[in-house]
Amino acid sequence: MNKIGVFDSGLGGLSAIREILKILPEDIIYFGDTGRVPYGNRSYDIIKKYGRQSVNFLLSKGVKKILVACGTVSSVALDDLRAEFAGVPLFGVIESACEKAVRIAECTGNKKIGVIGTQATVSSGAYEQYIKKLNNSCEVYSKACPLFVPLVENGHISDELAKLAASEYLRDLKELEVSSLILGCTHYPMLKDIISEIMGTELIDAGAEAARRLKLGNNLLNECRAGSLEIFISDEGMKFSEIASSFLGFDIKSGISKIEIEKY
Hints:
Elements lengths: L2 E6 L5 H10 L4 E5 L11 H17 L2 E6 L2 H6 L1 H7 L5 E2 L3 H14 L3 E6 L1 H6 L1 H9 L4 E6 L3 H6 L6 H17 L3 E4 L8 H8 L2 E4 H10 L13 E5 L6 H9 L7 E3 L6
Parallel strand pairs: 1-2, 1-3, 2-9, 3-4, 5-6, 5-7, 7-8, 9-10
Helix pairs in contact: 1-11, 5-7, 5-11, 9-10
């Protein structure tokens, strides 16, 4: 049976999975590259390699379309992956988030849009380029938050360490009074309470917006039942099930398999 494939550098893409399970009664295969997270400080060539291996793995599982639930891969490698895997519908997390940010900017009259992401995502300028394509009068202010991913991967989502990092990273963006802030990495929604308290503006969950776009025009295969979820990872660290459960909003104690991603 055909399935939807989703991948991310680690646990972050599970925040998109949570949304997909709400709106699409499809079977889902998820791959989290937990053994090589984070991607944000890697070279573009390595990010592209990791993306290619993830797509190859998901295709080996018979998926019919793939959500690249990784802001770094979506920013750096999505065009290359689409060219290489031309017959496979590949969705990223950039377009839908930018479209919502522009709608908010146009509605409020405040054309300042904030973006936070990994160093690779911010350096690529992908969010800014797409926003400018939609509305050239919008001003885009981006900030790399390299500590957010390791904090989330290690379960620091509401403690003083996370608050200290967020306060430092977001200080300048708060002063700009942006109309919205795009969470350009699917790990970041786990920090949304802290980020929201600091920023006081609308947050845009790039993974959730991409999941909603995935639904558009989707030919539902399993309308009569809820979809299933299989999770594959490249390394199982301590507290994996506990942290993954917090991403998904329900307990997972089985259905998680470790794979050798370098084979793909």
